[in-house]
Amino acid sequence: MNNIYITTPIYYVNDVPHIGHVYTTLISDIIARFMRLDGYDVKFVTGTDEHGQKIEKAAQERNMSLLEFTDGTSAVFRQLADVMNYSYDDFIRTTEMRHKKAVTALWTSLCDNGMMYLGSYAGWYSVRDEAFYQEKELIDGKAPTGAEVEWIEEPSYFFRLSAFQEKLLTFYEEHPDFIIPKYRYNEIISFVKSGLKDLSVSRKNVVWGIKVPNDDKHVIYVWVDALANYLTVLGFPDVKSKAYQDYWENDNNTVLHVVGKDILRFHAVYWPAILMAAGLPLPKRILAHGWWTNEGQKISKSLGNVIKPFDLVKEFGVDQLRYFLIKEMPIGNDGDFKRSSFIKCVNSDLANNIGNLVQRTVSLLYKECEGKVPVVNNSLLRNEEILPDYQEILEKVRGCIKYYNLNGLIHIIEQLSSIANEYIAVRVPWKLSKSDPEVMKAVLYKLLEYIRCIGLLLQPIIPDLSSKILDQINLPRCRRDFSKFSVPISMGEILPKPEPIFAKII
């Protein structure tokens, strides 16, 4: 069985988390939850990036010590991860000693392999992005992200990135699914073909960071520091550790980095080159998603339209937010957060479609079958009453997950619910109770099976509410993974009294 290692970027703690952080980790969490339910061994990690010049400035502006500031902000990110019900296995902080050990070992390995040299850097640097930019990349005197840049000249250690141009291009050619979506893959190839220059990987006038081994006048560039976290959580530099062997060194594993489009270059160019230079295996996939806008406007503090996730959760609920974000923005595209769209989505999909299906079906069972799963003659479960094609449904869903089409996964679930609701309208089970009660039982049993499939498939997306659906039909916990997807609900089971699961947003 393949092992799956799923990572989010570690989030920069210069400010509190926003909707983009929620979305990135949500994508990772849904994939991790799905793969676990499908029998895979999954390790899913997230965390915070706490070094660099931007952190120094943020702490100074708040009159706080660096450690006090990073401790506080990192705790908020962790709190959000828990509030959003992310199923992470590890939360890494770059201020931890285990991380310093890993970064130092990686740097030393690069030096030992002749991949570093001391030189002098003169060029443009963005404190906000913690990134170096070439003159040709600037747009109206600013970084491509819109960030301000400043000219700096200082001694610096350089990584021989230029030596990996052809190796990277060969790797991309041999691994056409390395970057998803495809047009991002093409963008990276175009960037690398335009020519790679050696990368400045240390800063001399920065205090807050990991010191360069044997030269404490320099601090390791924050992005080299941050990228190494993917190895830290696996026990690096102990390459014999079980976690490293299971999730990084294993030829049969899948390493998936989920990132925003703005940091794709760091993950798809610099990180593979660093790993090549250190003689370490490369990740298998990088999934780059788009950005959110707010009611059609770019999100920025200056416009005062930053979307605050804690406020949304308090007003609407965790699972409601999880569902909307995944449905509203297909991965790879940009998405617009509209309050009206959020409310419409929750009311239409969850309350009206899925919620009504569950409520009507279980209420009918209480009225007509004494609150029990009906005992049905199998000969009646054919023609109009034939049960769902479990294998076909599961294969379609697996296809969506294989290509990280989470929006498609929701579409399949919506279809199942719509089919079941249409089936109720056609068969009218409350009328069958008088004309043909045995067929009515078969109809209700089929509806329960649709509800079971919907509840199982919703587990990665809305874990709490899906659990309530499955509790409502009394499905045992031991039958909620996908190995039991084709096992129908047991006849004769006593069901809990029906209770509303999805409340409408007024």
From TrEMBL:
It comes from the Bacteria. The keyword Metal-binding applies. A motif ('KMSKS' region) lies at residues 298-302. Its cofactor is Zn(2+). It is found in: Cytoplasm. InterPro entries: Anticodon_Met, Met-tRNA_synth, Met-tRNA_synth_2, Methionyl/Leucyl_tRNA_Synth, MetRS_core, Rossmann-like_a/b/a_fold, tRNA-synt_1_cat_dom, tRNAsynth_Ia_anticodon-bd. One of its GO terms (molecular function) is methionine-tRNA ligase activity. Gene3D superfamilies: 2.170.220.10, HUPs, Isoleucyl-tRNA Synthetase, Domain 1. Keywords: Aminoacyl-tRNA synthetase, ATP-binding, Cytoplasm, Ligase, Metal-binding, Nucleotide-binding, Protein biosynthesis, Zinc. It catalyses: tRNA(Met) + L-methionine + ATP = L-methionyl-tRNA(Met) + AMP + diphosphate. It is an enzyme of class 6 (ligase). One of its GO terms (cellular component) is cytoplasm. A motif ('HIGH' region) lies at residues 11-21. Monomer. Belongs to the class-I aminoacyl-tRNA synthetase family. MetG type 2B subfamily. This is Methionine--tRNA ligase. It comes from Ehrlichia minasensis.
